[in-house]
Design goal:
The protein is of the alpha/beta class and 225 residues long. It has a single domain, classed as 3-Layer(aba) Sandwich (Rossmann fold), CATH 3.40.50. It contains 7 helices and 11 strands. The longest helix is centred in the first third of the chain and has 21 residues. The radius of gyration is 16 Å and the shape is globular. The termini are far apart.
């Protein structure tokens, strides 16, 4: 599938899959979307609402590592303790990673080595990036996830339901529910009614929230036993 690097609305880059006309991040702004959907509505919300000592994150779609890198920066800034698991079936090539401009756009030149390490560290092994942040990359398909009550935050950042509907089904969200701790949170940029109903069917309490720039709504789901 032909791929190319494009610049999004906030000046940050993303990868465009031309055959699907799908992008790894919002064309209105890759960093804006990550900050709004996953950091503000996910990471900061769970810290402010439940204040866990350790935040165990499962990312569905590690992709370019943008969400992981911003989470690392937030952990350093706020002294959060994060154990991060990023699941990706098809890792992004290093040649593409070097073309992304997240380090400069996030004014994070001092953390360049961390972003690079995120992409060159071994898969299936825990890597300690700092005293506040541990990363485990897992190369697997999403339907192979079988974690049980391990995570209190899920970043659900799969490709859209229009191009990969099989990733937004009741069976996938049942796996997410099973992987979540009680009072765990799942956040996603998606807002389709079919996605919301699939989440509700497995027992998640779902909220519609204002979306990032260029998108009216997003979803946040909570597991309350």
């Amino acid at each position: 599938m032909k791929r190319k690097i494009i610049t999004t609305g906030d000046g940050s880059t993303t990868i465009h899959l031309e055959e699907w006309n799908e992008h790894y991040h919002s064309t209105h702004g890759a960093i804006q979307e990550a900050n709004h959907v996953f950091i503000k509505t996910g990471l900061h919300h769970i810290k402010q609402t439940f204040n866990p000592d350790q935040i165990h994150i499962l990312e569905i779609g590690f992709g370019t590592g943008l969400n992981a890198f911003i989470s690392y920066l937030e952990a350093k800034k706020h002294a959060f303790h994060i154990n991060y698991n990023g699941v990706e079936a098809y890792p992004v090539a290093s040649a593409e990673i070097t073309q992304l401009n997240y380090i400069s756009k996030l004014n994070a030149e001092s953390e360049k080595s961390i972003f690079e390490k995120m992409h060159v560290c071994d898969w299936e092994k825990e890597t300690i990036l700092s005293e506040n942040f541990k990363l485990t990359k897992r190369q697997q398909f999403f339907d192979q996830i079988n974690d049980k009550e391990q995570f209190n935050l899920i970043y659900f950042d799969a490709f859209g339901a229009d191009v990969q509907p099989e990733l937004w089904t009741v069976s996938i969200f049942q796996k997410m529910y099973n992987a979540m701790q009680n009072k765990g949170i799942l956040v996603t940029y998606a807002a389709k009614g079919s996605v919301r109903r699939a989440m509700q069917k497995v027992g998640l309490k779902v909220e519609r929230l204002p979306g990032p720039p260029g998108k009216r709504e997003m979803l946040r789901a909570t597991k309350i036993n």
